[in-house]
Amino acid sequence: MGSETYHFGQFDLDPSRGQLCCNRRPIRIKPQIFALLCYLVEHRDRVVSPRELLETVWGSEFVTRAALTTALRAVRLTIGDTGREQRFIRTVQGRGYQFIAATTVATAESSSAAGAATRAVPVAAVETTTGARDTIRFCRTADGARVAWAVTGAGPPLVRTANWLSQMDLERTMPMFTHWFEGLTRGRRLIRYDERGYGLSDWTTGFTLEEWIEDLDAVADAAGLDRFPLLGVSQGGPLAVAYAARRPERVSRLVLNAAYARGRIARARDAAEHDEADLDLKLTLAGWHAQDHSYQRFFGSQFFAGSPPQRWDEFTSYQKRSVSSANGARFLEEQSRLDVSDLAHRVSCPTLIVHSRDDPRVPVSQAAELAQLIADSRLVLLDGRNHLLTADEPAWPRFLDELDAFLAEEEPGRG
Predict the structure, then answer these.
(1) Distance in angstroms (rounded) separating the CA atoms of residues 255 and 298
(2) Which of 184, 119, 179, 113 is nearest to 152 (CA)?
(3) What is the pLDDT of residues 266-277, one digit of tens each?
(4) Is residue 387 within 8 Å of 305, Cβ to Cβ?
(5) Which of 205, 272, 199, 192 has the alpha carbon at shortest distance from 236?
(6) Cα separation of 386 and 222, whole Å?
(7) What is the model's pLDDT at position 342?
(8) Does the structure show a pLDDT above 60 at 336?
(9) Mean pLDDT within 304-311
(10) For strand 133-140 and strand 104-107, is the pairing parallel, antiparallel, or unpaired?
(11) Could you give the residue ranges of the DSSP H alpha helices within 10-164?
(12) DSSP SS3 for 19
């Protein structure tokens, strides 16, 4: 067994080597600042008091609190955090500080293997409130990006493309997503992953459809899958369409939910619609860059229009923990300009398209367009307003019934 290394966001921390890397590139950091970061990460299960930090990191409780405050500011600056955002280090008034970013732990040997191999190696186990465990693994894409992926359940495979933000360890334990895991793993094996740019994967600068296809290729290869059904939800829909068109030998069946062929700007029909879409994008980008809570809450309401405001707040918190404000803004911009309409007509596998009639985020007309473009497709409309289906709406069991029946047509022993 080697010493432990830690992965959070786009960072790798190796205390034994005295090294902090961002996207696999070493960062210069002063020894005292490095020691402070290491201590917070290693004791992330609790709030650490200022006195404890002064005694253990500085070796004296007589160092001024101002020195500690300055050092904490330097740590936050190094890892792209601020006292206002507190995405990595949380200040607990009157008590101290806690490292709160989702962190995976590996031995030095397994971490090194993950960097050298194209196949995945296990680096962390996530335990859910129900007692189930998923092993989070990492694989490398053809261009070297590290992508986190995991398998849930047992049986025939179902691969879910990455969609608008995720963080696999958080997603698995959040009540608002529990029904997705329970429903999608009924007698089958769900393969999921965090796309590059957010979650536990590399927070790299690549935000193109081509790179997202590379991510999916790497995960399918790492999972040992030659041919499989593919599920695309929301922004994962156009990626799933493009992948099915480009890799027809790999995709046996395609399921699209709340999906679209063209993003908001790409589907503008005239100058007025384009200006409106462009203004909406600029407001959204401004809200993301500023980390404005009111705007992000409004943004969350578009995904859960038929749900109480508490769910909007939960989703807002989840988004903030999954991605940096800069990367979130870049994803939004790229997604608004996506256009896979020229690829959709090349999809040759059977396709199920399911969409809520009153989806405010992606209009139902986009589902109709996909159905027209994909030859062997069937369209099912659900009564509801949520962009992301919730467990307490009638549309959810209907979606699962349609999904199960569709996939059972190719799965032996089911149906």
Answers:
(1) 28
(2) 184
(3) 887 778 877 777
(4) yes
(5) 192
(6) 33
(7) 95
(8) yes
(9) 82
(10) unpaired
(11) 31-42, 50-53, 65-78, 108-116
(12) strand
| Gap between the Cα atoms of 212 and 162, Å rounded | 9
Q: How far apart are the first and last CA of the chain?
A: 47
Q: What are phi and psi of 4, to 5 degrees?
A: -85, 145
- Cβ neighbours of residue 298 closer than 8 Å, sequence gap 6 or more: none
- DSSP code, position 235: T
Mean pLDDT of the chain: 84
Residue 58 CB neighbours (<10 A): 17
Is residue 196 over pLDDT 80?
yes
Report the residue count for the chain: 415
* Residue ranges of domains in the chain: 4-104, 119-408
175-184: which pairs have CB atoms within 8 A and are 24 or more residues apart? 176/311, 176/314, 176/315, 176/318, 176/390, 178/130, 178/391, 179/390, 179/391, 179/396, 181/128, 181/152, 181/153, 183/396, 183/399, 183/400, 183/403, 184/152, 184/153, 184/158, 184/160, 184/231, 184/403
**Which tokens hold the place of 393?**
């709406």
Better-predicted residue by pLDDT, 165 or 356: 356
| CATH, domain 119-408, list 3.40.1280.10, 3.40.605.10, 3.40.50.1820, 3.30.1050.10 | 3.40.50.1820
Q: Are 143 and 153 in contact, with CB atoms under 8 Å apart?
A: no
Q: Whose structure tokens read 């936050």?
A: 76
Measure Cα distances from 263 to 197, 285, 365, 380 in Å.
Answer: 19, 15, 12, 21
AA identity, residue 131: G
Residue 413 is predicted with a pLDDT of 53
Structure-block tokens of residue 324: 């940096």
Structure letter (DSSP) for residue 194? P
**Euclidean distance between CA atoms 322 and 166, whole angstroms:** 6
For 60, 142, 227, 319, the CA distances from 71, given in Å and listed in that order, are 15, 39, 51, 28
Asked whether the beta carbons of 36 and 63 are under 8 A apart, the reply is: no
4-104 carries CATH number 1.10.10.10: yes
| Residue 149 · residue 140 · CB < 8 Å | no
**For position 108, what pLDDT does the model report?**
44
Residue pointed to by tokens 């690829």: 343
Name the token pair of 282: 């600029």
